[in-house]
Amino acid sequence: MKSTGTLYFFCGKMGAGKSTAAKQIAEEQRAVLLSEDEWLNALYPDQIKTFDDYLEHATQMRLLVKQHVQHLLAVGVDVVMDFPANTKKQRKWFLDLVSEIDAHHQLIFLNRTNEQCLRQIAQRRQEQPERAAFDTEAIFLQVTDYFEVPIASEGIRIVEWKGM
Fold it and tell me: How much is the pTM?
């Protein structure tokens, strides 16, 4: 019987480098890469203007994504999800996803300071002007208020990312 795949998911403040790490791990592991930003842009074009818009649409999308990822993992495919796991509630969603099908997982934690993240966000605004309206210091501070450092007692296998 074929074993299940491994789910890789990410915790790090906005601008910490989660998407860059996700791409690198997907390439190294020869895994399927799913990007929340790409799915949201495809499903809800021009509908996400505020953080509340993001929360509403991301919640709706997760219902579809969960089943899709579980199917991939169940047939032995490794999956890298470039979706945030920045709160205990978000991490529980990922843990439930893998627990329901007895799949392996790794939470990749990008432990960056606010200053490091803000520098990266400023650089990203220059490189991707289409993100400038959402990638601001004000949004960073709003989102960071929700951020919770992952801890082992959550039952998640945490690997601290040293890349970049």
Answer: 0.89
Q: Which of 30, 93, 23 is nearest to 58 (CA)?
A: 93
Is pLDDT of 31 > 70? yes
Position 28 in a domain? yes
Per the structure, the count of domains in the chain is 1
Q: Which strand (E) or helix (H) includes residue 41?
A: helix 36-43
Question: Is 1 inside any structural domain?
Answer: no
**Token code pair at residue 32:** 């399927």
**Residues 6+ positions from 109 with CB-CB distance below 8 Å:** 10, 11, 12, 149, 150, 158, 159, 160, 161
CATH for 40 = 3.40.50.300
The pair of structure tokens assigned to 92 is 């529980």
- pLDDT of residue 142 exceeding 80, the answer is yes
Rounded to the nearest 5°, which phi and psi values hold at 35? -110, 120
